[in-house]
Amino acid sequence: MSATNDLLPHVVLSGDHRAPGANNASLYSVLYSVLTIKSLPALLDVLQCAAIEIMGAEEVRILHYEPEQNRIMCYGYDKNHESFLSFPQEDDTPPAAFSSALRHPLVTPSQRLGDIMFLRSDPFRDEERATAVMLADVTAIALENLLEKTLAEQEEARLRHERDHCRILVDVTNAVTSKLELDALAGEVSREIHRFFGIDYIGLSLFDQDDSRLKTYVASYQRGKPVLHEQTWIPLAGSLAQQVIESENMLLMDLHDSTRLAPHDRQLAQMLELGHQTICQLPLVFGHKVLGVLKLAQCRSSVFDEDNLTLLRQIAARIAIAVDNALAYAEISRLKDNLVHENHYLTEQIRQEGDFSEIVGQSRAIKAVLEQVEMVAASDTTVLILGETGTGKELIAQAVHDLSGRSDKRMVKMNCAAIPATLLESDLFGHEKGAYTGAAQQRMGRFELAHQGSLFLDEVGDIPLELQPKLLRVLQEKEIERLGGNKVIPVDVRLIAATNRDLKQMVEDREYRSDLYYRLNVFPIMIPPLRERPEDIPLLVKFFTAKIARRMNRTITRIPTEAIRRLSALPWPGNIRELENIIERAVILTRGPVLALPLDAFSSARPQPVALTVPAADAGGDERERILQALRDANGIVAGPRGAATRLGLKRTTLISRMQKMGISGKDYLK
């Protein structure tokens, strides 16, 4: 109370005088009115009227002490009684227009609130002083009630405001954390911020640290309806968001000023075109890491008042949590998909693989191949395995991988001829979600699956021309881009390729790129056909008999010598695969311990007598005549097992290409 007394010295103390109250109905009416007042302006109205009518005062003022601010506020009317005043009272001197000031403390049993001051030009009488005391006592009670009511209303408003803020935070948090995909999250962020704040331009920019760029989701509203939705990549350098990310501080400024600060930020120009004047950018920080920026723009700067900014900071923190969750979910989904794809590929390989535990053969030809395998295996050089169908090219590829420094990693296998050309690119290099119709999710390609291991491409001669440059780039640059994506992914893969086709001739026929051929043909390994290694046939017969019998739970202990002799004399156009198939059929037909070979097995392995091989180097009139003769023998049929292409030992497309070059048409060979 002493501090209050120091601040409120009396100009004129009214003493302990009391007015005779019973005979003054007007005074009691005023006192009753004061006690029932609901607002400070109404209290001043009643006191002003009472001061004039009962006390003859010209003005009345309330001096209220505010201890929190350590100041005195003066409430009253101006000299024309027209406007309500509220201002700090800096001194105790009565206004110059008044020569008398009657001042009495406003005291309640619990506190001193301040003083009441009555002003007029002539001195106050004793009875007027007594009236002032009564008015002061009642005014103190009324003022205390008003102040308590005001504090209660302010507290209620504060609690209501906090409740509204909490409701907004809860609604926004529930909305954004329920979205685990970034696209859906960005849409929910824009809807919630527009709903609660009326902000018309909302952008969510996510920072890609690897490429130093921002993936930005933008939503713009007009009259409450979305008019713009877009996703775009923008470079971080030169953008306004760069300053926010580097400083981790909010940025609020005039939009025109921001364009001068970041003249190359095209999003700022977009905001200006939409009529916005103020921009606010808030960093999205979670776990001491900046994940991106929340960009807001509006034509009214008032929306970014301190109260809303406080709430927006809290919302940005929750959006950052949701973004981190979405990024983690995307990574988990990616890894899960990768595991599914890897499992699919590995299961497929296990299903397709035979027993590659050993290579059967003692011939000089097969030993020369194995020496080449040992020489090249330790390096990362690309290997091209050449040979006819069924010679065991995949087995040699597995041996190269098993003897290499990558043997502890997987060897991913792919038959290029078994996959439709339209899907080959996606299977090799992977694709992004939405890259084409049916691409419902991101998928890794074989190169990514083979990272740090080996990739075996069988039938590499069947890769379409339009896809060959992309394969060449992987071999040269050691990097890929998924179909539908633009992100460069480094890969460390040792390529082992195989084909039964004459790639050199295909290059000459312009059916294969020469640069890719030379890149593949760094270390070629030619697998000899079975007919060139007849001394290995007895070993292969015994090996396949034991393997197949074990698989079928059969017991076969002897193979007739005559059967082995006759099998060794056959030319085996289908090579080892044909031999294995015949042995499997024999095991199925065997009913005792001695392998029973069907008689038709020997005839089925003989070559077609009509087969005619034309050397690839032959050209000119002789080649034209051979092609015409083959077409006549095949009755004009080009493709198929008895077609002219098979008779000539050529691919269908190669034969057609040569026919076009030589001007051969149906009238030349059809009777």
TrEMBL record:
One of its GO terms (biological process) is phosphorelay signal transduction system. InterPro entries: AAA+_ATPase (IPR003593), AAA_lid_NorR (IPR058031), GAF (IPR003018), GAF-like_dom_sf (IPR029016), P-loop_NTPase (IPR027417), Sigma_54_int (IPR002078), Sigma_54_int_dom_ATP-bd_1 (IPR025662), Sigma_54_int_dom_CS (IPR025944). Residues 359-588 form the Sigma-54 factor interaction domain. GO terms for molecular function: ATP binding; DNA binding; lyase activity. Signal peptide: none annotated. Pfam families: AAA_lid_14, GAF, Sigma54_activat. Keywords: Activator, ATP-binding, DNA-binding, Lyase, Nucleotide-binding, Transcription, Transcription regulation, Two-component regulatory system. SMART domains: AAA (SM00382), GAF (SM00065). This is Formate hydrogenlyase transcriptional activator. It comes from Enterobacillus tribolii.
